[in-house]
Amino acid sequence: MHQESPKHWMEVAKKINSIAQTGLTFTKDPFDKERYEELLKLSIQIMSNVTNIDSQKLEFVFNRDAGYLTPKISVRAVIIEGSKILLVKEKSDNKWSLPGGYAEAGMTPGEIAVNEVKEESGYEVKPIRILGLIDYNQHQDKPFPFDVYQLFVECEIIGGHPEPGIETSAVEFFDAEKLPELSTRRVTKEQVLKMFELQKNRNLDPIFD
What we know:
It is built from five helices and nine strands. The chain is α+β, with helices and mostly antiparallel strands.
């Protein structure tokens, strides 16, 4: 008998959660409301079993907003000088990543990139162009329990100096051939190498899936 993968059940749970969220937004029937609430609980149970993430944490992520369930946006800044790329060391796992984080309301993608670089590396930058927009979970062995679109923004340093932030412990530039251990839950080696390629050949189209 064929056994479905954890990724399959994650997609099922997210679909159930989305249907329930939308139903709760528009239904006026108290009995339908109870059914949609039960569907929310069911989706969280499935996600918790698949990811081993505490159900209370998942409920906070999924059930705090009413309406259609939409993907989160993660913005990563790409800063290449010569043959080296800027990476920051994450305190959470002591591995390296492109500066960045989740998008905040009221800010443009460019503003988010500028803000994240300043907070995590100490450098002041200006955004130049988009290098890619991907479905984050399609590039992870263990996808997050929610959909994430990852936006890569090329930036240029215009000031500041290297200084770790609250969430980072080091700031350095690295050659493509000598990359450190990456925080692959944030960015993969394949993606970093693709950033080098896009920066070198500006006629290439941004990555997109």
